[in-house]
Amino acid sequence: MAKAMGGFNTSLGGSFILVGxxxxxxxxxxxxxxxxxxxxxxxxxxxTIIALSRMDLRLQTPMYFFLSHLSFLDxxxxxxxxxxxxxxxxxxxxxxSYGGCVAQLFIFLALGSTESxxxxxxxxxxxxxxxxxxxxxxxxxxxLCQALAISSWMGGLMNSLIQxxxxxxxxxxxxxLNHFFCEMPVFLxxxxxxxxxxxxxxxxxxxxxxxxxxxxxxxxxxQIARAVLKVKSVAARRKATGTCGSHLLVxxxxxxxxxxTYLQPKGSYSESKGKFVALFYTIVTPMLNPLIYTLRNxxxxxxxxxxxxxxxx
Length: 313
Hints:
With 313 residues, the chain is mostly helical. Helices cover 75% and strands 3% of the residues. The protein is built from twelve helices and three strands.
């Protein structure tokens, strides 16, 4: 057994082995192709959202301000894991250094936590737009929007600092990580001493950053649904349902996978299932988000056609 330290395992010269999908070697080439395509679409889609929100005046509103932050987050979120996975799938060196693993864990947790808070902020924006339409411009002042965006990033950073610090203090045995990147539930599986106290603190931090925002979002959408039902105009009701429906779908995809991964007991976590769920929220969801927000959004589609029209002139 590898030597247990008061922190990350330091066997293999301070490295871990990322098993990835090596248990299914016949699928690695297929995974590589699909993941590369999805990653490319993620970059194109989210970069387009950011560019359009800056170029078109119709999109310079609080909703698209937060959406551009979400797109930037998704770009960073998927980039923190996919390049490592693509190298892994090519069958090259599957090891990752101690420092690289800590950095990847910290960055991934920070970005995921930030997205959790940002989705709550976007729900508040939709609540203000639907339930307080006459005061919307006053409530969602540019200064408040900036403050909410900064708070999302700072909240994600603080949560990651806490959880990464607690993780580094845990004694781990072994150097084999049955995953394609350094993720928290996999490290918890390597804990070789009684760490119930530390795990309880980490669980509380995960509840605060995942479950609490999810419940607040559900509460805000209950108020939104009540307000929409009172609207007599069919066109206004359809518009409110369209914009809120897109956000609610993104929320469902993000929190569904996050709750499955981070809020279940350590003993019931399946590493094999966890890898495929992780594929969904690190690759598929960031690729789908731009499509979800654009397919039913006339403003974004109009801005896109306007830019494409200029490019062809």
